[in-house]
Amino acid sequence: MSSGLDSRDGVAGAADDAGRPRVDMETLRRVQEYYAGQGWTDGLPVVPVTDSYLAEFLARTDRAPDDVVFRMPHLQRSCTVRSAAINAAMAGCLPEYFPVVLAAWEALTLEGYAGKGIWQSTTGTAPMLVVNGPVREQLGINSRGNVFGSGFRANATIGRALRLTAINAFGLQPQQLDQATQGTPAKYTCCIGENEEDSPWTPFPADHGFAPGESTVTAMLIRSVIHLEARHTEDPEQLGRDLAGTLARTGALVHETISGCLVLGPEHAHLFHRAGWSRTDVRQFVHEHAVNTRARLAEVGKDAISKETRWRLPAGHPDAVPGSDAGAPEDLVPVLNSPEALLVTVAGAHNAGVSAVAETFGPRGGAPAIARVPADPSTGGPR
């Protein structure tokens, strides 16, 4: 397989007779090894950043380079526009992706978890981004087949820009300040688009005060993503119970309750829609049916709550107190404390009954963290 590069000419930017760029590969290798030696990478090669290339990113925003885009007060560290741009360039972003990266940092600020140290958790958490609006088509952000997988530069590099910034601006290197026991593949990148075109409902942010044509980024902190295959039914209640059962697994129930995001494949979204269900109906049904019995929780030692941390533990533990469900008349313990603790979006190809359940840290009864993609001054207006 040809790389398309020609290393015979030591001058970067020159081209051979076929128009292929000639690159000094020895210099490029030395730069890569230098970046890796400084601990500036996520283990994969990064793009070397020159002052002129950095200027192309900074030209995509009206914000000053020294403006702070995110803070981690407990570490006494912050990230500026300039630092966010450097890491976006290193991640392989094109300059035109940078407004989306800035919107992601704004959404993460609204979400609130990352600034409180949860990115360092032993659980192995990572941010997940959902992009809506025209910016998806403009930048080639994938919302269809293989949406959680490889093959799309914008998805891969926008999400990766956050991880490199976590490493380089906040010092969250693994086995150091990042204390993840096992981690998750989402620690490399997790950025998807909502498949608005194949969804039967209005775009997800439209349920939360945004116009359907606006470009936005929703941010959430996830533990894991579990896929669910349900090709056997056209009954919305059967599908809803399948989703609820996936969400209610005892291994996810670390705290008194959890939160989640249903990433419905278009076939499942249309199944609900044909039955007359709205996105709100899906949330309500899954909230009501995502339950465990007290006996089941006792079997796994999660039938009580710590009075200090509100984490689940055995009823015989000296720190144990009954959970908030103790007075409920039925022997059922809800996993979600409200329908608002569950987000519902649509993504993936319209080719099979496959959806995903993302286990999140929020919102627990609050609004999702959604930010508008800012105008790109280099294009003369909003996206």
Write a short abstract of this structure.
The chain has helices at 25-37, 51-58, 81-91, 98-111, 135-139, 153-168, 236-247, 266-274, 279-289, 294-299; strands at 14-15, 21-22, 68-72, 77-80, 126-132, 191-193, 216-229, 259-264, 291-293, 304-306, 312-313, 320-321, 332-334, 342-346, 354-360, 369-372.
How would you sum up this structure, described in words?
The protein is globular, with a radius of gyration of 23 Å. The chain has one domain. The longest helix is centred in the middle third of the chain and has 16 residues, at 153-168. Strand 1 and strand 2 (21-22) form a beta hairpin. Helix 3 (81-91) packs across helix 6 (153-168) and helix 4 (98-111) crosses helix 6 (153-168). The model is unreliable at 1-11 (pLDDT under 50). It has 383 residues and is an alpha+beta fold. 27% of the residues lie in helices and 19% in strands. It has ten helices and 16 strands.
- String of helices and strands: EEHHEEHHEHHEEHEHHEHEEEEEEE
Anisotropy-based shape = globular
Computed Rg: 23 Å
Count, helices = 10
Average pLDDT metric: 91
| Unreliable runs | 1-11
Number of strands: 16
Which structural category do the helix and sheet elements fall into?
alpha+beta
What percent strand? 15-25%
> How much helix, percentage-wise, in residues?
25-40%
Number of domains: 1
Roughly how many Å apart are the termini? 38 Å
- Major sheet details: 7 strands, mixed
Give descriptors for this structure.
10 helices, 7-stranded mixed β-sheet, alpha+beta, 383 residues, disordered N terminus
